Amino acid sequence: MGNIRKVGNQQKTKRNTKKKFVFPASVGTYFRELSVVVVGIAITVSIGLWINNRNSQKDKDLYLNAIKLELETNINDIEAKIKKMQISIDYADYLKAHDKESVKRDTLWVFSKEGGFNTNYIYNFKTEAFDMFKTSGMMRLTEDKDLLLSIWNIYNEIDVATKELNVLENMKFEETKERLKWSEKEAQEKIPGYIFYYKANGAYEERRQLENLLKKLKETKEKLE
Asked: pTM, whole model, 2 decimals?
């Protein structure tokens, strides 16, 4: 009988022990501190991403502003070139208005001197800002895809126009160089740049391409305003 009571007391003691078991205070404190650390890390990461995004947006805006300034520089260069090449247009107009027999040699000499016909001008528009923008990774942050396409297109136009304009300039230079080989008699009979200015309408074509590029540059720049 006593053994039965003893066994019963032991089982009761075990049940009571299970009911009353709790984690040590140090374990609870550990989990609370861990939760604080996790939340702190999450907040820090979120703030870091927010700051990084803000900085990326600022960088993108700086690149776009640099492109706008670069386009403005090219616009100013083209406007100056169009103004400077007016002497070439006047020379072409003069040749169109006269036949070979009626042109005045003194007039041809003035045009040749003032127009710098012996100068090998090389077109070289600025594209550095766009080149940096392409490699910066900032294009993905540009939400205005139409603007992005316009920027790509205008720099493609610049590349094509540069090649075509330099072909014209080289054609003019190669022809006018021939004057250095002329005898005195040939100098009195031949017209400098006759093929380029008269037959090929080179000066008119050069101005047309410059004006066309100028218009597109201004349109793209306005989109960046």
From this structure: 0.73
